[in-house]
Hints:
The structure holds two protein chains of two kinds. Chain A contains no helices and ten strands. By secondary structure, chain A is an all-beta fold. The radius of gyration of chain A is 13 Å and the shape is globular. By secondary structure, chain B is an all-beta fold. Chain B is globular, with a radius of gyration of 14 Å. The interface of A and B includes residues 36, 44 and 53 of A.
Amino acid sequence: DIQMTQSPSFVSASVGDRVTITCRASQGIGNWLAWYQQKPGKAPKLLIYAASNLQSGVPSRFSGSGSGTDFTLTISSLQPEDFATYYCQQADRFPHTFGQGTKLEIK
Amino acid sequence: EVQLVESGGGLVQPGQSLTLSCKGSGFTFGDYGTYWFRQAPGKGLEWMTFIRGKAYGGTAEYATSVRGRFTTSRDDSKSVAYLQMSSLKIEDTAVYYCATELRIGSWWTRGKDVWGQGTTVTVSS
Lengths: 107, 125
């Protein structure tokens, strides 16, 4: 199975801050990486697909980049509604493994 | 409105079986594969199974942790996918989600854009 390693596991930031979350795959996955946001008690929400494509309706402050084994999710200017847990997921081959998650909290 | 709704969760004893359902609406369910994920209390997301749409043979993939115990199937006439779980273990306790994949024209993006609300399975004696 492909292992996905996210960092950091936890980040404390303020409204207006720029935040970057990284995800590393244990082997190359091309650009088959997605990012999800999850709030407590809710289903995950797709933010980014195929590494860098912004899902419809997702604010442009979210962006994704990377290919191969190293990927990043950037939130350019944090808004109050962005405080949540973020997961990367590889979809290059089954099982479609997730990173362990990054919890983004208000400083 | 495009929607998935899971049902069938509940409290069961170790070793028992349970079947979850995932009903789609607002789209042609049979054209899409269905994923199942789970999330144990306080833990991260875990991919469980995927069943392909009819155009791709309707075949399935399974996570190692559930292969041989869980079976996914679909009834496109009812727009429903199923997750049959047997020999349940305490560690199968989780919220179970189904989801489908974003398709843009003919491009399957592999991003899961439609999710159900989740159904809770508790395995306890």
